[in-house]
TrEMBL record:
Protein name: Phage protein (TIGR02218 family)
Pfam entry (one): Phage_BR0599
Bacteriophage phiJL001 Gp84 C-terminal domain sequence ranges: 180-263
InterPro entries for this protein: Phage_phiJL001_Gp84 (IPR011928), Phage_phiJL001_Gp84_C (IPR018964)
Length: 272
């Protein structure tokens, strides 16, 4: 029986694209997915622990197949993709066993190939739970705890890329915002080869003539070209004063601004 067993992978990207791969020498089909044998993806041996230990495996592939392109990898379009792995009898695909379900973690390029970490369903259990008592806000701007509407007038702006150099962008067509307004915010590419990619804003400077210079913490996987349109979203440094004066949203502030500092807690007490 083991001589008729093959591995079959189904990978569903967040944009809805679903691809199937197999290490068998012929195509397999089930669950509405065709698993191609000539694709640039193969499976490493799966290592799974008992209980809630983290699944540990890799997907390995070449950049020679049209299904997996270097541009999509660099753009992060495969990051977080849902992954299912079956052991299937290639003589009868109804005889199969699901042995892994999770998602792709970090995707690393190495020459003409790539490696993608696989993370199992137990991965979220490694995340911190509960609230952190800290003077700064623990919410993300615009999420369910913050409740701020980023579509509100004045908190985003669209412009055109004039030039880009390793995460530094010169933009035009953005006026009416003070320098630093978009620091800690987000830049989203709206058109061009990098459409849909986004990056966190490290520095934001307003220049005369509705021009702006923006530096990202990390350069985008695909460089925006001159003429591409982008959107800047206002940033929050998570301070109580910023929440109160910039966003008028202090009723949803999730920090503890009146906590005494750490040096107060360890300072010697004076006897009276």
């Amino acid at each position: 029986m083991t001589e008729t067993i093959a591995r079959a992978w189904a990978v569903a990207r967040r944009d809805g694209l679903v691809l199937g791969f197999t290490d068998h020498d012929l195509a397999l089909s089930f669950d509405g997915v065709t698993f191609r044998p000539d694709s640039g993806l193969s499976a490493r041996a799966l290592v799974q622990g008992l209980g809630l230990s983290v699944d540990n495996s890799e997907a390995v592939g070449a950049l020679s197949d049209s299904a997996i392109t270097e541009r999509d990898l660099m753009a992060g379009r495969w990051d977080g993709a849902d992954v299912r792995l079956w052991e299937v009898d290639w003589t009868d695909s109804a005889n199969r066993r699901l042995v892994f379900r999770g998602h792709l973690g970090e995707v690393v390029r190495s020459g003409a190939a790539f490696r993608a970490e696989l993370r199992g369903l137990s991965e979220p259990l490694n995340r911190a739970q509960g609230r952190v008592y800290h003077p700064r806000c623990s919410a993300m701007l615009g999420d369910g705890q913050c409740r701020f509407d980023l579509a509100r007038a004045g908190y985003s702006a669209e412009g055109v890329v004039e030039a880009e150099d390793e995460g530094r962008l010169a933009l035009s067509g953005i006026a009416g915002h003070d320098g630093g307004w978009f620091e800690h915010g987000r830049l989203v590419v709206l058109t061009g080869a990098a459409e849909g990619l986004s990056g966190l804003v490290k520095a934001d400077a307003a220049l005369p003539g509705a021009r702006r210079e923006v530096e990202l913490w990390t350069a985008l996987g695909i460089r925006p070209a001159a003429g591409d349109r982008v959107r800047l979203e206002a940033g929050c440094d998570k301070r109580a004063e910023t929440c109160r004066t910039k966003f008028l949203n202090f009723q949803n502030f999730r920090g503890f601004p009146h906590l005494p500092p750490e040096d107060w807690l360890i300072a010697p007490k004076v006897n009276r």
